[in-house]
């Protein structure tokens, strides 16, 4: 992988500013599926609420990250009930990073890019982040209805090997999102 510190494979998908529809390029989940996704994600990793971190162990790590889960502040990622937590994975682990977009409205597509560039981030963060450390997944379209319980949601994932110890950042590079706080630390140790 050119320029990156971690090797990976990206799952296919499409991008654009639109609500999720069947055939968008990734998974489409209903509300019950979205809740199961969140619940499943809470069974992986150890939470430390005091340090706002989730630590994963083992050689195969599954992370179920949520973009703007209802009930949380806008422009945040959620994992294990924490907003923008520090994610810690073991060096050499195969990481399955999954993302569910629960946000709603124009320009509320989200993705996660792993970078070495620390915050703060400008409005056009994608121009500032430099080469990604893992091939980024496409932007996930926003949910297709205002009512969270009847809407459908976009989900997608990618797999990579955490091959280089160090401190990284997972960032939503959509305009203004990282500037408003949609990022967290990603540590490989």
In words, what does this structure look like?
45% of the residues are buried. Strand 3 and strand 4 (53-55) form a beta hairpin. The strands form two sheets. Strands 1, 2, 5, 6, 7, 9 and 11 form a seven-stranded mixed sheet that branches. A six-stranded mixed sheet has the order 3-4-8-13-12-10, with no helix packed on it. The protein is built from one helix and 13 strands; from the N terminus they run ββαβββββββββββ. It has a single domain, classed as Cupredoxins -  blue copper proteins (Immunoglobulin-like), CATH 2.60.40.420. The protein has 189 residues and is mainly beta. Mean pLDDT is 92; it is low at 9-14. The protein has one helix spanning 31-41, and strands at residues 7-10, 27-29, 46-48, 53-55, 60-67, 77-79, 82-83, 86-89, 94-101, 113-115, 153-161, 166-171, 183-188. The chain is globular.
């Amino acid at each position: 992988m050119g320029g990156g510190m971690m090797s990976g494979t990206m799952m296919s998908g499409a991008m654009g500013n639109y609500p999720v529809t069947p055939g968008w390029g990734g998974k489409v989940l209903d509300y019950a599926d979205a809740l199961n996704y969140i619940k499943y994600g809470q069974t992986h990793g150890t939470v430390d609420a005091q340090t706002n971190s989730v630590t994963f162990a083992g050689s195969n790590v599954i992370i179920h990250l949520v973009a703007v889960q209802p009930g949380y502040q806008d422009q945040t990622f959620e994992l294990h009930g924490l907003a923008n937590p520090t994610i810690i994975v073991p060096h050499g682990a195969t990481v399955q990073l999954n993302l569910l977009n629960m946000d709603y409205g124009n320009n509320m597509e989200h993705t996660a890019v792993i970078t070495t560039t620390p915050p703060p981030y400008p409005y056009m963060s994608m121009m500032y982040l430099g080469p990604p450390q893992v091939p980024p997944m496409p932007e996930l379209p926003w949910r297709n209805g205002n009512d969270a319980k009847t809407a459908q949601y976009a989900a997608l994932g990618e797999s990579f090997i955490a091959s280089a110890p160090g401190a990284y950042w997972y960032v939503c590079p959509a305009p203004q999102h990282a500037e408003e706080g949609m990022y967290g630390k990603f540590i490989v140790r």
